[in-house]
Every structure is written in C-alpha cells, then in structure tokens.
Amino acid sequence: MQCLMGIGTSIFLIAGGAILKFAVTATISGIDLATVGVILMVVGIIGLALSLLFLARADRGEVVVRDRVVERDPYA
Questions:
Q1: Are 30 and 64 in contact (CB under 8 A)?
Q2: CB under 8 Å to 29, separation ≥6 — which residues?
Q3: Could you read off the pLDDT of 49-65 as tens digits, one per residue?
Q4: CA dist 13 → 4, 27, 37 (Å)
C-alpha cells in the first residue's frame, strides 16, 4: 500500500512550518504566518507518523515457502 505522503515530504513540511513559525517576521494582511507554520508542522508530523506506520506494516508480509519436486534422471 502506498502512503499519500512520504517521509521526505513530511520532513519538508515540518521544516517549512518551523521556518514560518520561528524565523519569519514579515506580516501579510489577512494571513498569520505563525499560524500557517503551526498548521504545516502538524500536517508534517501526522504525515510522518502515518508514513512510519505504513512502513512498519509493510515489513510484516507473509512468506510462503514451497518445496520444489525434482525428478531424478531415469537414465543416470
């Protein structure tokens, strides 16, 4: 099963959100950049948790081992 958001994308969202929350001091009329940063960090953390969950579940695949029948050469 493919996850919608990978680990790299999640880390990118967390880093971008942290930059908006803690490093940007600019103001935009009608938009609170600190709030946008928190939203991006929360979405990134949720995406990272889901990606790690799906990655952990993918390793639990069922292994089927079948014996192969080898016939002997009657002329040997």
A1: no
A2: none
A3: 988 888 877 666 677 77
A4: 14, 20, 9
φ, ψ at 46 (rounded to 5°): -65, -45
Nearest to 31 by CA among 46, 18, 15, 39: 39
The model carries a pTM of 0.70
Mention every residue, 6+ apart, whose C-beta is less than 8 A from residue 1: 54, 57, 58
The pair of three-digit structure tokens given for residue 43, joined into one six-digit string? 């979405």
Residue 1's pLDDT band (boundaries 50, 70, 90)? Answer: very low
DSSP 9-62: HHHHHHHHHHIIIII----BTTB-HHHHHHHHHHHHHHHHHHHHHHHHHHTT--
